Each structure stands twice: as C-alpha cells, then as structure tokens.
Amino acid sequence: MTRASSRRPGPPTRTERGIPEATVARLPVYLRALTALSDSGIATASSEDLATAAGVNSAKLRKDLSYLGSYGTRGVGYDVEYLRYQIAREIGVTQDWAVVIVGIGNLGHALANYSGFGTRGFRIVALLDADPNLIGERVGDMEVRDFAQIEDIVKADRVSIGVITTPAGPAQEVCDRLVAAGVTSILNFAPVVLSVPAGVDIRKVDLSIELQILAYHEQRKSGEAALPEVPELPAMNGLTDLPSVGGGVGA
Amino acid sequence: MTRASSRRPGPPTRTERGIPEATVARLPVYLRALTALSDSGIATASSEDLATAAGVNSAKLRKDLSYLGSYGTRGVGYDVEYLRYQIAREIGVTQDWAVVIVGIGNLGHALANYSGFGTRGFRIVALLDADPNLIGERVGDMEVRDFAQIEDIVKADRVSIGVITTPAGPAQEVCDRLVAAGVTSILNFAPVVLSVPAGVDIRKVDLSIELQILAYHEQRKSGEAALPEVPELPAMNGLTDLPSVGGGVGA
DNA sequence: CCGATTTTGTTCTCACGTTCACAAGCTCCT
DNA sequence: AGGAGCTTGTGAACGTGAGAACAAAATCGG
C-alpha cells in the first residue's frame, strides 16, 4: 500500500510522479470547490478565494497545487476551468470507472440512488447481493443481481472498484471474491478490518467511529472536571455486556 | 478547534489530558477489536494480538494505549474487559449521547435504521426534515418530525450531536440552526464545507471523495505510462460541463 | 519602459505522527 | 530464591505534513 517512490533527499524534482497522500485526499475537495466557482460563473480565482471555498488555508492550497505543476499565473490567480480539468485528470475522473456495489441493504439502496455516484467519473455497473429475496428487485433503473456472477461482471465491464455495504460477517469473504475476480480498489462500509493482498487499495468509511470521535471531544467540552477517575478494579458497572459498539451499516 | 494545550517541551507528564488526534481516531477501532475478542471468549490479549485485530502495528498500538495510562501487564498482555472499559470511558461511550438526524432522504433512512447507532453510546432522539410530505412518516420505530422544532428538541433531550444528511443546498443553514439550538458536535454527510463557530466540532464523511481517492491510485496502477500529458492549452475535451463531481448523498 | 502591485511557487522551520529498539517489570519454572 | 522468557511502556530517530515568509513573475498605470 505504500506507494512511496524511493527518492534520495534533494529537490523533489517536480513531474517525478509522487503526490503526498495528504494532498491527494484534498484534491477532490479542490475539484468540488472549482466546480462550484465555475457554476457561479467565476472564471478566475486566487489561491485565497479557492482556499476559502475549500476550507483550507491558502499556503497549503498553493503547495498542494504545486505538486501538480504550475497551473496558476502570478499576479492573477488560477483559471477555474483549466485548473479544474488538470485536477480532474490528475485524479483520474476524466475517464469513467466501473463500480459494483455489494450488499443491497439500507445503505446499499442509498448509495445506488445516490446521484453523486452517477456523475461523471464513476458508473455503477451492477448491484449485487447473495440474498435470493433481493435478487431481481429493481433499485432505481437497475436490477439486483446475484453476487455469484461477480467474476463475469468484473471481466465484462472491466470493474476496478468495489463498494462493500454488507454486514460485518460476510465482508471479508465478499472482499476476497472481489479481489479474486480482479477488483483492485475497495471502499468498505462494513465495520471490520479487511485484509487484502498487496496491490489492492482499500479505504474504510465507518459511521460509528466518526460518532465516537465526536463523543470524545464532546466529553471534553462538557465534563472537563466531572470525569470519573480510574476505578481501581474493573468494576464493569453494567458494561460487561456492552454490545458491539459500532455495528454494521449494511443490511 | 485546536485542542492543543500549551505545553513546554519536557516529559509529557501523563494524566495531563491531551491525547493526540491520530490516537483518538484509532481508539474506536481498538474498542471494536476488543469487543470482538471478548465475544470470542478471549480474556487476555497481547499488543500483537490486538494490533492484528485492529489492523495496525503493535508499536503504534502500545504507544496509543500508553496515552491512556498503564493498563497492561508486562509479560502477560492486556485484560480484554478491563481495557475495553477504560477505552470506552476515555471515548465517552459509557454514557449515552443524544443524536438528531436532519434530512430523511435515502441516507437519512439508512442511518435511522442502522442498528449500530442504537447500540450503547448513542441514542437517536429525533428524525427531522423540512419537507411536509415527509413529516409524520414512520421510520423504524420513530416518526419524522418538523425541523422547525429543533430548538425544543435539543433543549428537551440535551442533544449534543447532530447528523446532517440533507443535500448540499440547505446544509449550511441547517448547520447554523443546529448550532444556534445548542448542538456542539456535527457529523456532516452533505458535500459542502460547513463553517461553524469555535467550540463546535465538525467531521465530514464524503463518499465521492473516498471514491476519487481510490480512482487516483487506480489510475496509477493501470495507466502508469499511458497518462495523457498536459495539453498545452485548456482543450477542455468535452469536460467543461463536468457536472458537480461529488454530489450529495442526502435526499 | 519602468516601477508599483498583486499573487504564485518554493524554501525553511516547526510540529506531529510513526517506527525502532530496549530497559523495566511481570510470571513461571527449577 | 533466582534466572529465563515474555511483553509492556517509552525514549529517540526518522519521516511527513503544516504554516510562515519571501523571491520570482505577471499585470497595470503612468
């Protein structure tokens, strides 16, 4: 998963592909900000404008953009359309990526109907589930198909990205079969740590983890002084049966 | 938002509250791993075991845990139940946090039915929307209520966490009204950068951004040498009308 | 044509996060 | 009781990321 190209210390010689991961994660934000500006009819924007729209500071934004090349004009700013195209190309959304969604429960439904998915850059080619009761059901303009067909679908449509919205239980097996079929990028919504072979990228979205991070800060804000101190022995006040904090989002 | 306590260089004097943000983000993962181990009937686990279950390396895990205190036993490992309680307490999920969900579209529905939400630590007290057609609809065992009642609901149930699953358009106004009503932590699924006053924590979950990050790496894997180089002038090959890459998840 | 003004691209420094490596401390066996 | 064998907790080295600050480059007005 480490994509770090071996590079001896020295001037980071631009054009030598190797954009910091933190920057890659912000490029989509810039892309969206540029789209918004473009929709407002704005043709040129300074790093300050863009940074405000993207919610970062301008120094960071300029440094991020500098990894892509010199697409701005000093004293003027950035051409919105031009920069937008450059970022889209760098990310790879100037082409369409075929996506399958596995696990058509509540969240799978929501994603299938999610208009943002269908916009340029990504194309859902199949909704898959193993539940016979679900197979054949229409969701939007698609029909739920049998997960058993995954091999054929991946090969036929050159699918490279898989989205897992199953419960935690079957997630690893689904993942393994996706990888076996040829999928090389996975977006996982199931609340488990999936293991994949090297060369396969995986990202995780986890609602309960996000909530828990908020809870941590919330506790700091309110209770600052009212924190119960360490009970000397595991008193486990009714907490021993704490049910899987953070369950699945899947069906 | 910076919670960094001013601290001159020196021994980081444990118990002086101040856990690194990166560590906080991993605590929920450890909590889940511990729950899984506990469910398997395992009473004691080494940092190696835990690290494997959580998908991190053991040195990082030990360092993370050391910020909480010394809850392990050298030569033995960690008591699963005890450590689980300590982490749960540190995060703040030994108490219940009242949560409202605003925007009952596809994703709002999915979250409302999401069992992981209802587990200990969080309690959904209201589903809100501004659309009169939705108000009154039953979702699970709850009824969709009018967003106009937000003030009362927040005060009555001491709501501190709000989840925004509206489209991008109304998200900022919803956010402002949540904050005005007294909500101090927000989880935002709308594809916009929300601005909040200091003292309010905000986290963002964005599906299309995650997909785009995957696409970036995917492009590296496949095309390595086949990348179209910078077109000298903004040729904009049919991309000038690229529609908001990354739309809303909300209804 | 030149200087004032604006804004980018980049360098430098500092803070944060990760990993290594090992001393401290616990248990168990003899 | 004492030593062998593990495993934790942490100090130190290293790498990555963020932000300040500034030189380079473009436009514009006179």
**What is the helix tally of chain A?**
9
Low-pLDDT runs of chain A = 1-15, 225-251
**Quick one: which chains have the greatest interface?**
A-B, 92 and 92 residues
Main sheet: strands, sense, barrel of chain A: 7 strands, mixed
Q: How many runs of DSSP E, i.e. beta strands of chain A?
A: 10
What does this structure look like?
The structure is a homodimer of 251-residue chains. In chain A, helix 1 packs across helix 2 (47-54) and helix 1 (21-39) runs antiparallel to helix 4 (80-91). Chain A is an alpha/beta fold. Chain A contains 9 helices and 10 strands. Chain A has a 7-stranded mixed beta sheet. The model of chain A is unreliable at 1-15 and 225-251 (pLDDT under 50). In chain A, strand 2 (72-73) and strand 3 form a beta hairpin. Chain A has helices at 21-39, 47-54, 58-66, 80-91, 106-113, 115-118, 150-157, 168-181, 207-223, and strands at 44-45, 72-73, 77-79, 97-102, 122-129, 138-139, 142-146, 161-164, 185-188, 201-204. The relative contact order of chain A is 0.10. The radius of gyration of chain A is 22 Å and the shape is globular. Chain A is 39% helix and 16% strand. Chains A and B meet through helix 1, helix 4, helix 5, helix 6 and strand 9 of A and helix 1, helix 4, helix 5, helix 6 and strand 9 of B. The structure holds a DNA duplex (30 and 30 nucleotides).
